[in-house]
Amino acid sequence: MSELSMTAAPIRAPRWLAAASLAGIAWNLFGAAQFAGSITATEASLIAQGMTPAQAAVMTGYPVWMTAAFAIGVAGGLIGSVLLFMRHTGAMPILGVSLAAYIALWMGDLVYGVFAALGIGQVVILTIVVGIAAALFALSRLTVAKG
């Protein structure tokens, strides 16, 4: 046998993995836009968008660590999704950090009154965010396990 025939062909990623990774990239780009809006928001701009003064005060008054958790969640989700698309093993730890950051943000929303001020809609939205982060992390674990 020739040396060329003994070389294994690269394993192609399933189409669903590429689609899920691209969806993760798109989702996290949307999250990055939401993050940018959150760090530039003022009480006046939030009131102009329809929040009550009390809601706007809660949204602009939470601790810096919650903003950091949001940033880590979004950046980790975006970078991790790109690495997942490339089938890089580094996707798993980065998506794990993203998931942990979103869980911390969810807990912060609970503790600092964001859920109470904004209602069930905010609970649902952030729970979906955590769920998507968990799904991306699980997908990265599956990808690493399958090689």
How would you state the average pLDDT, rounded? 91
Order of H and E elements: HHHHHHHH
Structural class: mainly alpha
Tell me the radius of gyration: 19 Å
Q: Helical element count?
A: 8
Largest sheet: none
Name the poorly predicted regions.
none
Number of domains: 1
What is the strand content?
under 5%
Distance between the termini: 26 Å
- Count of distinct strands: 0
Q: Overall 3D geometry?
A: elongated
User: Could you estimate the helical fraction of the residues in percent?
Assistant: over 70%
Give descriptors for this structure.
147 residues, single chain, 8 helices, 82% helix, mainly alpha
Task: Provide an overview of this structure.
The chain has 147 residues and is mostly helical. It has one domain. The chain is 82% helix and 0% strand. It has 8 helices and no strands. The longest helix has 27 residues, at 120-146. The model has no long low-confidence stretch (mean pLDDT 91).
Mind sketching the topology for me?
Elements: H1 3-6, H2 15-40, H3 43-48, H4 53-61, H5 64-85, H6 91-111, H7 114-118, H8 120-146
Helix pairs in contact: 2-5, 5-6, 5-8, 6-8
In summary, what is this structure?
The chain is mainly α and about 150 residues long.
